Amino acid sequence: APPAARDTLRALYRLTQRELDLACRLAAGEPLNEAAIALGIAHQTARSHLKAVFAKMGVARQADLVRLVLRLTSAG
Question: Given phi > 0 = left and psi -120 to 50 = alpha, else beta, which region is 64?
Fold first, then answer.
């Protein structure tokens, strides 16, 4: 996501930098295990971050997260 869109996501949902990085990677189509490797974190840590992202963004599924991130990043 472009820097301005990332800033918007971070501000709107109070995401940590790691949560934001993970959400953007998932929205770009990267599987969770590959995103974890790219971010240098354990798969279980990525799952924990993902659960926090779901809670903060008010979504229950990864597909909903991806739709929301894509909609917000393409709006700007």
Answer: alpha
Judge whether residue 66 has pLDDT over 80: yes
pTM of the predicted structure, to 2 decimals: 0.89
Mean pLDDT, range 14-20, rounded to an integer: 95
| Distance separating alpha carbons of residues 4 and 72, to the nearest angstrom | 11
The pair of structure tokens assigned to 34 is: 């590959």
Q: Reduce the secondary structure of the chain to three states and give it as a string.
A: CCHHHHHHHHHHHCCCHHHHHHHHHHHCCCCHHHHHHHHCCCHHHHHHHHHHHHHHHCCCCHHHHHHHHHHHHHHC
